[in-house]
C-alpha cells in the first residue's frame, strides 16, 4: 500500500503565553525516537493558534523504514487476495463439476391472463409483452422473436350465435375454415406473391372445465418472385419469404366463438413446441 499523502503529525502544538511556554501534547514524542529518525520541528509561528510539525516520515531513513513496512503489508495483502481467489476458483470447480446442470437449468415461467369481462383466460410466457392496437382483443409478442405472438379474438353475439362447437362441424371442417381465414388475412397485393397452406393436424379435446375445444395446426409458407416484372417465366424465380406454424384453439361460450391463435416461425416451433402447447392447453372460456 502506497504511503498516504497526509501523514498524521508527531505532535500537536498549542500556543502559550511566550515561546518558552509552548506546550506539546505528544502523540508520538520526538524525544523517544532515535536521533537518525527524528526530524527538526519548525519554529512555532506566533500568529498561529494551532501548528503541526512536519511528519516523522520526512527523513530519508524513515522513508526507507516505512517502505519496508509497506512491502510487508503489500505482501500480506497479496497473500489474502491469492487465498480469496483460490477459494472462489475451488468453489467454481465444485459447482461446475457437481451441479452444472442444476445451476444453469432454465425453467420457463408462465403468467395467467384472465379476462372476466369477455370470459376467457390463458397462460403465456412471462417475458412476452402486450402490444396494444394490434386489432385483436388481446395481443402478446415475444420481444426477441417478433414473428412469435399470440392473440385472442371472439365473434359478436349480435352477428352470429354459437351454441356449441358442433355448429362449426367436425374438427376437420373447422380446420378448413381456419385456413381460409388465414389466407384471406395474408392476401397480398404484390405481384408474384404466393401463399401455400397445409393443415398439419386437427383434434378435439375436453378440458378440465368439462368443455370441448378444437385444436388446429397449420403450416403456411410465403413465396415471392425475385423479378416479378420479368416477361419470361424462367426469369421469375420464386423464393421462400417465410415459413410459419399457426396454432389455433377454438371454444364456444356466451353465444360466441372464441379463438386463441399462436404464430411462430417453424424453426422456433421446433425449439419451443412444449411451451407453446402448454399455452394452447391453458386456454379456457368462461360464462359471463
UniProtKB/TrEMBL annotation:
Q: Which InterPro entries match?
A: Mog1/PsbP_a/b/a-sand, PsbP_C
Gene3D superfamilies found in the cross-reference section: Mog1/PsbP, alpha/beta/alpha sandwich (3.40.1000.10)
What Pfam family is a match for this entry? PsbP
Q: Which SUPFAM superfamilies match?
A: Mog1p/PsbP-like
Domain (PsbP C-terminal): give its ranges.
Answer: 110-285
Entry-linked NCBIfam families: PSII_PsbP (NF040946)
Provide the protein name. Answer: PsbP domain-containing protein 1, chloroplastic isoform X1
**Source organism (scientific name):** Camelina sativa
Amino acid at each position: 500500500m502506497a504511503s498516504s499523502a497526509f501523514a498524521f503529525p508527531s505532535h500537536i502544538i498549542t500556543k502559550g503565553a511566550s515561546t518558552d511556554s509552548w506546550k506539546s501534547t505528544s502523540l508520538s514524542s520526538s524525544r523517544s525516537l532515535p536521533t537518525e529518525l527524528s526530524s527538526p520541528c519548525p519554529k512555532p509561528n506566533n500568529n498561529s493558534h494551532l501548528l503541526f510539525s512536519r511528519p516523522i516520515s520526512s527523513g530519508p531513513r524513515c522513508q526507507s523504514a516505512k517502505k519496508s513496512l509497506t512491502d510487508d503489508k503489500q505482501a500480506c495483502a497479496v497473500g489474502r487476495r491469492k487465498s480469496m481467489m483460490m477459494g472462489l476458483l475451488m468453489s467454481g470447480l465444485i459447482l461446475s463439476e457437481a451441479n452444472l446442470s442444476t445451476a444453469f437449468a432454465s425453467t420457463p415461467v408462465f403468467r395467467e391472463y384472465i379476462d372476466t369481462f369477455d370470459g376467457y383466460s390463458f397462460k403465456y410466457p412471462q417475458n412476452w409483452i402486450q402490444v396494444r392496437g394490434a386489432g385483436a382483443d388481446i395481443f402478446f409478442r415475444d420481444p426477441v422473436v417478433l414473428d412469435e405472438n399470440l392473440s385472442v379474438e371472439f365473434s359478436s353475439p349480435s352477428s352470429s350465435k354459437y351454441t356449441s362447437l358442433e355448429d362449426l362441424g367436425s374438427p376437420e371442417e373447422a380446420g378448413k375454415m381456419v385456413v381460409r381465414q388465414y389466407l384471406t388475412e395474408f392476401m397480398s397485393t404484390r405481384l408474384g406473391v404466393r401463399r401455400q397452406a397445409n393443415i398439419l393436424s386437427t383434434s378435439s379435446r375436453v378440458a378440465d372445465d368439462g368443455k370441448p375445444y378444437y385444436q388446429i395446426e397449420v403450416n403456411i409458407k410465403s413465396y415471392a418472385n425475385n423479378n416479378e416484372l420479368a416477361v419470361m417465366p424462367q426469369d421469375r424465380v420464386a423464393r421462400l419469404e417465410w415459413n410459419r406454424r399457426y396454432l389455433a384453439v377454438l371454444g364456444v361460450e356466451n353465444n360466441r366463438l372464441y379463438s386463441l391463435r399462436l404464430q411462430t416461425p417453424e424453426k422456433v416451433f421446433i425449439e419451443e413446441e412444449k411451451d407453446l402447447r402448454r399455452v394452447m392447453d391453458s386456454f379456457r372460456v368462461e360464462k359471463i
